[in-house]
Amino acid sequence: MKREDYKNIEGKKNATNVIKPLKSLAYSILTISSISLAVMSCRSDKIMTEALYMQYKNVKLELPPGDEIGDSFSSGGMLSEVVNYTNKEDKASNEATYNTANKLDANTVYRLNEVVVTSRSSFTPERDGRVSVNFLVRVPKELISSNWSITLSPQLLHNDSVVPLKDLIIKGEDFYNKQQSGYDAYDEYLASIVDKKDYDSVFLDKQGIAKDIYDRQSLYLGLYKSEWNDMMDYQKWKKMLESRYMTFNVKQEANRLALWHKYQREAEFLKVKNLATDKDTTGISANYNKKFEKRAGLLPQYRLKREIKEKSVPRKFKEVHAEGHTVEDIKSHSVSERDSVDISKHRYFYNKIIENEMKDSLKNYKFRELVPYEIRKDVKLDSIADTGSDFIYLYNHEYPVTAGLKKIRITMKGHARAIDESGYTFPRMDTLTYLISSIDQLIDTTLTIKKTKLYRNMYSLLTIYPKFATGKAVFNVRHENNRMQIDTLMSTYNVFTKEKGLDMDSVVMTASTALDGSFDNNAYLSKQRVEAIKDHLNKTYGGSIDVENIFKIRYIGEDWNGLVRLLQKRDDIEHKGEILHMISNATFPDACEEEIKKLYKEDYRIIRDSIYPKLHKIELAFNMSRPGMEATDSIQSEFRSEYYEGLRLLKNRQYWDALEILANYPDYNTALCFTSMGYNDRAYNLLIQLEQTANVNYLLAIVCFRLNKKELAVEYLLKACELDNSKIYRAPRDMETKSLINIYKLKPKLDKIEADAAI
Predict the structure, then answer these.
(1) Which distant-in-sequence residues (6+ apart) come within 8 Å of 174 by Cβ?
(2) What is the CA radius of gyration of the chain?
(3) Cα separation of 593 and 46, whole Å?
(4) DSSP structure string for 483-534
(5) What is the biggest distance separating any 2 CA atoms in the chain, rounded to whole angstroms?
(6) DSSP result, 454-490
(7) Each residue's pLDDT tens digit, 576-598
(8) What is the DSSP string of 606-632?
(9) Is it true that 457-625 and 638-758 share their CATH fold?
(10) SUPFAM superfamilies from the entry (predicted)?
(11) Contacts of 714 (CB under 8 A, 6+ apart)
């Protein structure tokens, strides 16, 4: 087989492989078009949702049983709250509590014979910056069918904002089966698509590859046999001609040799004759040799020699003869692994591959075609409804509360979609309105006025940072800002003694150093430095102040506690937690510092440069007394403007900002702030230390309920109502106290407390 024939065969195969996929592609396009036309041609005069258009009932929004507040507020109300506790210390449940008859699971479908709602109103207490909005969604059984799905979309209205809540979907059995059959068909479609990594096992034309390999092997064999036959013919011709020429050349050589010996005999005879006659023999051999050369070179029987020459080689053997090739020089070819790979690249069922890739590219189209009713994942509920009864669902949603928010509203829209793709939009439902009942209403504003006890004895603290040479204790007031540090000390001293007229009983100076250097040396260094400061004060101010007796010295050496406090405030130290842990477990201070320096070089550099300078300090405690005051203390009233600002922030639910202020005033309102933020353990620990007023007891009831100390919570609630009857009317508005009333059936006891107070 010639090379040209092989190429022609391959070209025809490639052309066939291109035409087949194009036919398959055209067929697929025609199939899709036919499907689309078939769908468009379907039409019916009757639609499945026709019954919805011919009835008058609608989906309703209702309040859960027990959340009504009466007829005085017909379009709004108060809800039960849900509190999420994020701090580790609180383990209380965050689930709103209903009694057994009214408790509803938001993930379960309930079918109730009748729900009587006397009011569309409810308060929603606010906790931790959120309110929990609960409402019942009722779908009458007349609106439920096996053939369609109903999508209900609640909306929360906050001022001018519309916040979409997660949808509810209820569907009939047949509609659900239609959805599932669509997904099953789509899964079957996906299963029919071959992954590209599996092309070799599915679409590889192994039979064609075997044929191509056989054809190539046959080609290589044919090429070799053709060259081999040519070589055999050449060698046969060459051997024949060489044999003929050899016979001729042997005969010629024999004639030449015979002639040479003839002349040699004649020369020998003449030399013998001349010797016998005493004649000269010189030149006889040379003379006869010349005769031989002349005669042998003249006559053809002596001089001719035959050999194969280029012009005598037949045309078909000229190339082989000129290059001197032998059988060993014939190149033999075989099919290698690389050849097999190259052949395989072009031996796939391309029509099936194109069909498969078209399937893959049409996945989205096929999904829309096969799954016209998609199962949504972003919904609150997706459930199959019983067509024989009303569908009732308790919807719960937590919503963040912003400053100034007093009420929110809930409305809902909905639509139905049937198997035949007909639809129906429900009229917009009535709106529920909720008032925000915040715990900040329990704020005690009377605490704005602070009644302060004036003590005869008092103290004040001051820290100065005098500078010393490294490792030295010589104090130079002119070094860096040492003058300012001493001036600050004396200015404070003079304010207390001269301006405020207090008697200075003592000034305790405590010196410390940073961690660089030896622990023992630093202890001694701090002692020397504080003594140097006192010596300077004595020399400078000893004439007017009794420095020797008033100023007392102490020293602590390396200030590890100060290091910990400063570290805790930093955010630029990457391994702060690990370093603090090492410090808290340190036994040998110097070894600990070296370990920190070794493990966390960059963090240590920051500590050394920005924290160590703050540890070289003198802390001063000014101990004073009021002159002429005989009693140990007296009462002074003061309006606290900063505290008032903290209460304002608390009312606006800016809890963190409020806590920054109120944390400085550990009282009832601070505990209220803790409670609002969900820090119930902290609130409890603070409240039990306060005077047991009605407010304190009421807040303890809320906190104890959250901490699952319900029986103790009941005691605090009853005590609060006894001390202040208005708490009886407040209790139903807060989820914790309302739950206590329901769980422990406290209403008779509260009625008795109210009756006793009226006598």
Answers:
(1) 146, 147, 419
(2) 56
(3) 87
(4) HHHHHHHHHHHHIIIIIS--EEEEEEEEEEE-SSS-HHHHHHHHHHHHHHHH
(5) 197
(6) EESEEEEEEEE-----TT-----TTSTTHHHHHHHHH
(7) 999 999 998 888 888 999 999 99
(8) HIIIIIHHHHSEEEEEEEEE-TT--SS
(9) no
(10) TPR-like (SSF48452)
(11) 701, 740, 744, 746
Joined together, the tokens standing for residue 15 give 């052309």
Q: Cβ neighbours of residue 250 under 8 Å, at least 6 residues apart? A: none
Domain ranges of the chain: 50-172+385-441, 206-338, 457-625, 638-758
Q: Compute the distance between CA of residue 239 and CA of residue 231 in angstroms, rounded to an integer.
A: 12
Locate the DSSP E strands across 586-727: 617-625, 633-639
Rounded Cα distance between 200 and 336, Å, is 19
Q: What CATH topology corresponds to 457-625?
A: 60s Ribosomal Protein L30; Chain: A; (3.30.1330)
1-33 per-position pLDDT tens digit: 444 444 444 444 444 444 444 454 444 444 444
Contact 446, 742 (CB under 8 A): no
Which alpha helices (H) appear in 192-205, and where do they start and end?
A: 199-202
Angle 614-618-621 from CA coordinates, rounded to 5°: 125
For helices 589-599 and 576-584, the axis angle rounded to 10 degrees is: 160
> DSSP string covering 582-594, please?
HHHT-SSHHHHHH
Q: Which residues pair with 341 in a beta bridge?
A: none
What would the pLDDT profile of 567-576 be if each residue is shown by its tens digit? 999 999 999 9
Condensed to tens digits (0 to 9), the pLDDT of residues 93-152 reads: 333 333 333 333 333 332 322 222 223 445 566 555 678 888 999 999 999 999 999 999
CA angle 705, 706, 708 (to 5 degrees): 65
| C-alpha torsion sign, points 712, 715, 717, 719 | negative
Tell me if residue 67 falls in helix, strand or coil: coil
Architecture of domain 638-758: Alpha Horseshoe (1.25)
pLDDT-above-90 percentage for the chain = 47
